[in-house]
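Session log. Operator J.P. requested a structure for one protein chain; no other inputs attached. Running the standard single-chain path with token output.
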Amino acid sequence: MRSLSSLRLAVFDCDGTLVDSQHTIFKAVSTAFQSLGAAPPRPEQSRRVIGLPLREALAALALPDSGLDPALLAERYRDAFAAARARHDVEEPLFPGAIEALDALEADGFLLGVASGKGLRGLERTLGRHDILGRFVTLQTSDVGPGKPNPDMLLRAMADTGVEAPACAMIGDTVFDVQMARAAGAKAVGVAWGYHDVDELEAAGAHAIAATFLEVPRTVHRLVP
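Structure written below.
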């Protein structure tokens, strides 16, 4: 049995890091706004807030004088997403190299986790669709506490697994992931294939950038030897 001091943890963001869900998210956001008689935000606007808790993200997309209720927007968004699932119209493919990266990290002795802006049920459905749900020993969402960039989710992941901050790496595609990792004292690995630009991730304080998923295991191993 490994001692607690030898444990290492790699925590992944979901949307924009493990899976490319932007197109389904854009459709659900547009449907939510249109259902309340409001013009939908542009895709590039929606992309900026992916990763935040749902109500916070939708509130950021609503114009200040729109009078739109973020709670009602969130309800309509969930309805739109559920309808898309019922139609089998959900587009959430894994990014190339994801499985190989998870394999390599597990082979190197890392525990795996996820910290996501999704709700827990939605996260479990997404991971289950790709048959990788059981690979993660901790799943953290904003259902039970503050979302990104607050460090709460990552701190809970470390508490769940008994891993200390220096032995934890957060892998994500947005500045919210980087800020959360830095605030929790963990290593922040930005990825170049997601929804925020690399220069933004670097400016937010990413310890390293992985250009492809195949670079993730050796980058994490370098930061958390």
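Operator note: The domain at 4-20+92-223 is CATH 3.40.50.1000 (Rossmann fold).
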